[in-house]
Design brief:
The chain is an alpha/beta fold. The protein has helices at about 40-45, 95, 135, 155-170, 180-195, 205-215, 240-245, 270-275, 285-300, 320; strands at about 1-10, 10-15, 30-35, 55, 60-70, 80-85, 130, 140, 175-180, 195-200, 220, 230-235, 250-260, 280, 310-315, 330. It has two domains: about 1-155 and about 285-330, Medium-chain alcohol dehydrogenases, catalytic domain (Quinone Oxidoreductase, Chain A, domain 1, Alpha-Beta Complex); about 155-280, 3-Layer(aba) Sandwich (Rossmann fold), CATH 3.40.50. The radius of gyration is 19 Å and the shape is globular. One zinc ion binds near residues 89, 91, 95, 104 and 105.
Amino acid sequence: MRELTYVARRTVEWREAPDPTIRSSDDAIVAPVAATPCDVDSSILAGHGFVAPPFALGHECVARVVETGDAVTAVAPGDLVVVPWSINCGDCDRCRAGLTAHCTAVPYMAMYGAPVGGNWGGLFSDLVRVPYADAMLVPLPAGLDPVAMASASDNWSLAWRLIAPHLKDRPGARVLVVARGSIGLYVCDIARALGACDVLYVDPDPEHRALARGFGAVTAESLESVPRGYDLAVEATGRVDQLAATVKCLAPEGICESAGNHFRPGELPLLDMYLTGVTLRIARDNVRAHIPEALALAAAGEVDPGKVVSHVIDWDDLPNALPEKHLKPVFVRADV
Ligand SMILES: [Zn+2]
Ligand SMILES: [Zn+2]
């Protein structure tokens, strides 16, 4: 089988690898049918990643189950499933507490698409082995489009977690979104669906801003200071100066969620944050724990993540098309 392999800045290529096989009775083998780059993949492709190439890329996809081990009961061959970005066993104390990105049964940072906690391959591969399949895989609800939901492995479900629980606690909150890619747009869509008012989306890209307006947000090219303006804020830029400006716009006891991936150091206005009473959360997403609840919102027809999909591209074109700068291309296969 082929693995799309990141080999150098802005360069990926197919490399042959042995077909993965069932190694344990709780494994599954899946074939991605719709896969898409995470916002962080564009940083990796631009050469800003923290792991030296070559390695298999990709950690967002909807896949079809091809084969299951004898102990797997939750999914069966032929099922469409969401494959979470991080590897988790579902059974250790952390997994049981919902901290699936911190599973103790696998090496620290075990994930698809970057060999930082063992090598689990990437989801831009023809076939993928999924350990702990019953705990990992989430069946795609009937009626949902794999292309629209390809990002449920990470960015889309992350966007749900960044805003949905807070809006439940603070209905009608004023929301600020400072972003550069798909995550912020998904947040706008979900925030509108869950009753936020006054969503401001800040992004220098006019195409992104047009999409945000389609989700009911007001938009701006850059962030003007709005002291005490917003109850909730989401920062997804990877830039500390933008995070600093974002927290300065929070209302008293406001909450800022950062999608992280700050590869460079920087300073935050800690005294301002103290005086305002800011809660800042910057956390890798325990995505598996909330994929089902996020998918339920999509299955209810309340949101439209397919609007963020910028291009639908044939799987075989991955090496040429992935390094191009697109908002959210989805690579699809007709043969599985
Ligand atoms: Zn990611
Ligand atoms: Zn675990």
